[in-house]
């Protein structure tokens, strides 16, 4: 069987806390890609997300909460799933690293690599950060502390027997892959950073821990598997590896791994080397999204400057938050999240441009034609401009240009608003020009139908409300090519005026 499914993944999120808006940013982006490929690819998309639940940090946090690590993770995972439901995240699979089938698969992968000579025994001595569960060379330490900007805790000298993945033997193959596929890691700055690491040399990776009990036991006993080795293998264990190779063939390689740029090295050097050792193809694309900053600093639990998605949903709406996050900046760039910016985008783009267009257009249809769609005009003044939209949207999403995609759609929202102002249906009604009024009403309603189909991956609730108001059934834009043909809206379809899609928000209300 050949690969036939678009496979998109988020990183596994660590269960030492609940989701913040940075986690939501990556996950909403993955949801948009999955929804788009479901409507354009006959439903063949697989969206994977989940949680990373092993390691000393989890054990410590659980102990502080007077719970076992598994009890603690079970509780936290429930909160993650609930948050994704609130944000309209339609994942196909939620994997937990404590799932028994994942643990068994990771143990088998570890054993396979050991049998092939890619994992072997050794002794590790070095500076170790217990919080990050990472060994750091002395040259990377900052004032004797962990260099991870989200950590910064003191490190300690550790000497222990360990198992090593012989990553250095894959350096040349990795370099060849980077050079032959210069766009497989994006944005370009991420490719440059990882290429520099490879060119400077590659050491073997310690993949076991004798001092950490909360983890997947080593197949041969005597410790646990390094949490990052465990977690990063989720992308293939979720696809069925190594026990269901038929499923693997359908899904693998992943079309895109969406990650934060702080975990680039794990996904573009360590992970590809593991895949090479397993004789598996590498993912088509690894894309490192930007960081959301507040007051000039990356949002993180350790800094204490995080914004919870629920806090924003309480003021705005789910679709307003989804739109704002993906329309603010190029996907690989950092950007600042502010209440003022959220209010401005909500009121200008959503309440004024889209919401007002739908409300006034369907209200005029109700007033002048009792809500029934009039006959199609013999010649359309809008069709030519709209018929290029599907290709533009697809081209933008193919390169993960979410902001550009939304900007293209909103240009057409502007076209429809200008069309209403230019044709003036209220004047046509007063003058008794029934044919011109019918043509204007049909054109704007058909244009709105197209907009609903195009925004569906980004704003599914809003798209669904518009779709239903237009008397349409099913998922907006389902059967993409058939749906996005001008003139599909049937005459005499009964419509209704929806409740306001995006009530305006005053800055004072947003500030609480």
Tally the beta strands. Answer: 16
Mean pLDDT reading: 94
Q: Classify the secondary structure makeup into a structural class.
A: alpha/beta
Unreliable segments (pLDDT under 50, ≥5 consecutive)? none
Per CATH, what is the topology of the largest domain?
Rossmann fold
Portion in beta strands: 5-15%
3D shape: elongated
Helix content: 40-55%
Assign the CATH class of the largest domain: Alpha Beta
> So, the CATH homologous superfamily of the largest domain?
HUPs
Whole-number radius of gyration? Answer: 26 Å
Count of individual domains: 2
Largest sheet: 7 strands, parallel
- In the CATH hierarchy, the architecture of the largest domain is 3-Layer(aba) Sandwich
Number of helices: 21
Give the quaternary arrangement of the chains. Answer: single chain
Taking the alpha carbons of the first and last residues, their distance comes to 55 Å
Quick structural overview:
The chain has 512 residues and is an alpha/beta fold. The chain contains 21 helices and 16 strands.
Topology, element by element:
Elements lengths: L5 E4 L3 E2 L6 H20 L4 E8 L3 H9 L4 H18 L6 E4 L3 H16 L3 E11 L4 E3 L19 E10 L5 H10 L4 E2 L1 H12 L5 E2 L1 E2 L14 E2 L1 H6 L1 H4 L7 H7 L4 E5 L3 H14 L8 E4 L2 E3 L2 E2 L10 H7 L2 H10 L7 E2 L2 H31 L13 H4 L2 H10 L3 H22 L1 H7 L2 H22 L4 H10 L10 H4 L23 H4 L2
Parallel strand pairs: 1-3, 1-12, 2-3, 3-4, 8-13, 12-13, 14-16
Antiparallel strand pairs: 5-6, 5-7, 7-9, 10-11, 14-15
Helix pairs in contact: 2-3, 5-6, 13-16, 13-18, 15-16, 16-18, 17-18, 18-19
């Amino acid at each position: 069987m050949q690969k036939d499914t678009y496979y998109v993944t988020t990183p596994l999120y660590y269960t030492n806390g609940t989701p913040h808006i940075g986690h939501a940013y990556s996950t909403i982006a993955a949801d948009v890609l999955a929804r788009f490929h479901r409507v354009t690819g006959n439903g063949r998309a697989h969206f994977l997300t989940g949680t990373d639940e092993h390691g000393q940090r989890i054990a410590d946090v659980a102990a502080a909460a007077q719970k076992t690590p598994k009890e603690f993770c079970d509780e936290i995972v429930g909160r993650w799933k609930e948050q994704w439901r609130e944000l309209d995240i339609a994942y196909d699979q939620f994997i937990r690293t404590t799932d028994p089938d994942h643990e068994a698969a990771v143990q088998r992968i570890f054993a396979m690599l050991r049998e092939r000579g890619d994992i072997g025994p050794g002794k590790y001595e070095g500076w170790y950060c217990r919080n990050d569960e990472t060994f750091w060379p002395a040259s990377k330490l900052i004032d004797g502390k962990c260099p991870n900007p989200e950590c910064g805790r003191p490190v300690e000298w550790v000497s222990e027997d360990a198992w090593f993945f012989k990553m250095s033997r894959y350096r040349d193959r990795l370099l060849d892959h980077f050079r032959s596929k210069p766009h497989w890691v994006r944005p370009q700055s991420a490719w440059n950073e990882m290429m520099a690491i490879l060119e400077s040399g590659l050491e073997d990776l310690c993949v076991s821990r004798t001092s950490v009990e909360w983890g997947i036991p080593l197949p041969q006993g005597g410790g646990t598997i390094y949490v990052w080795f465990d977690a990063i293998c989720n992308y293939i264990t979720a696809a069925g590896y190594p026990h269901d190779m038929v499923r693997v063939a359908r899904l693998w390689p992943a079309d895109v791994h969406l990650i934060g740029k702080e975990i680039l090295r794990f996904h573009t050097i360590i992970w590809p080397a593991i895949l090479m050792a397993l004789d598996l193809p590498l993912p088509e694309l690894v894309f490192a999204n930007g960081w959301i900053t507040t007051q000039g600093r990356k949002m993180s639990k350790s800094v204490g400057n995080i914004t919870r998605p629920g806090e924003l949903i309480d003021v705005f709406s789910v679709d307003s938050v989804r739109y704002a996050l993906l329309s603010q900046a190029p996907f690989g760039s950092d950007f600042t999240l502010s209440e003022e910016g959220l209010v401005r985008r909500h009121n200008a783009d959503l309440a004024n441009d889209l919401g007002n267009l739908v409300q006034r257009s369907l209200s005029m249809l109700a007033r002048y034609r009792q809500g029934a769609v009039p006959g199609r005009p013999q010649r359309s003044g809008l069709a030519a401009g709209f018929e290029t939209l599907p290709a533009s949207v697809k081209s933008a999403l193919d390169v993960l240009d979410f902001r550009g995609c939304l900007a293209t759609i909103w240009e057409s929202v502007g076209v429809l608003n200008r069309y209403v102002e230019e044709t003036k249906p209220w004047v046509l009604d007063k003058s008794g020009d029934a044919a011109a009024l019918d043509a204007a009403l049909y054109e704007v309603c058909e244009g709105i139908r197209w907009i609903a189909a195009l925004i569906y991956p980004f704003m599914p609730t809003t798209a669904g409300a518009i779709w239903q108001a237009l008397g349409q059934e099913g998922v907006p834009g389902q059967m993409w090519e058939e749906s996005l043909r001008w003139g599909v809206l049937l005459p005499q379809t009964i419509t209704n005026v929806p409740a306001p899609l995006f009530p305006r928000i005053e800055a004072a209300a947003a500030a609480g």
